[in-house]
């Protein structure tokens, strides 16, 4: 199985976007090749063009930070609601921030094919790639397909729970 557990690892599940500049439209061709590889749900995608690889890695990393921020602020909101039961000051802003991060993540990444991929940075795992010897780039970006259902469920649940607890406390205070 591949690192994400989605599919068996065969050479047909690996896509390599080669850095070959044969026309002035090569960067657009690289982007189209990446889109095709993402849509075909390859287990591993190796991106040799450095600009495209860096942009893709930054996009995925930003999504990861947004997810983590939503979860951490949601959990902190829940904990602060129990720790300071007489004050909304820490709980409400954290809950709102968690909901905003979850909403932005859902709106921006839900339909993006990159959401199913993570950047592989572990040198031991990279060394085991069967295609590694045939690469022409010294530092390609390697994307590994992983199931993201648990992470989506986690940050949505935490954000909604923190908002629900905040609304419940507000209701009890007003009542």
Which segments are poorly predicted (pLDDT under 50) over 5 or more consecutive residues?
1-10
Radius of gyration: 21 Å
- Total tally of structural domains: 1
Structural class per helix/strand content? alpha+beta
Q: What is the distance, rounded to the nearest whole angstrom, between the alpha carbons of the first and last residues?
A: 55 Å
**Structure summary, number of beta strands:** 4
The major pleated sheet works out as: 4 strands, mixed
Percentage of residues in DSSP E strands: 5-15%
- Biggest sheet strand line-up: 1-2-4-3
Number of helical segments with 4 or more residues: 5
Function: Plays a role in mitochondrial morphogenesis.
Keywords: Membrane, Mitochondrion, Mitochondrion inner membrane, Transmembrane, Transmembrane helix
Subcellular location: Mitochondrion inner membrane
GO biological process, one term: inner mitochondrial membrane organization
């Amino acid at each position: 199985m591949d690192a994400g557990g989605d599919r068996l690892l065969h050479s047909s599940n690996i896509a390599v976007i080669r850095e070959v500049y044969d026309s002035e439209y090569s960067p657009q061709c690289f982007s189209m090749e990446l889109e095709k590889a993402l849509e075909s749900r390859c287990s591993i995608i190796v991106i040799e063009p450095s600009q495209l690889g860096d942009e893709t890695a930054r996009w995925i990393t930003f999504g990861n930070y947004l997810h983590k921020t939503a979860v951490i602020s949601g959990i902190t909101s829940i904990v602060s609601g129990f720790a300071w039961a007489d004050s909304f000051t820490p709980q409400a802003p954290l809950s709102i921030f968690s909901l905003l991060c979850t909403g932005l993540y859902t709106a921006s990444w839900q339909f993006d094919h990159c959401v199913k991929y993570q950047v592989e940075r572990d040198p031991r795992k990279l060394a085991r790639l069967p295609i590694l010897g045939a690469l022409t780039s010294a530092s390609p970006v390697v994307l590994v397909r992983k199931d993201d259902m648990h992470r989506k469920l986690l940050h949505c649940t935490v954000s909604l729970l923190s908002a629900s607890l905040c609304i419940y406390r507000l209701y009890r205070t007003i009542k």
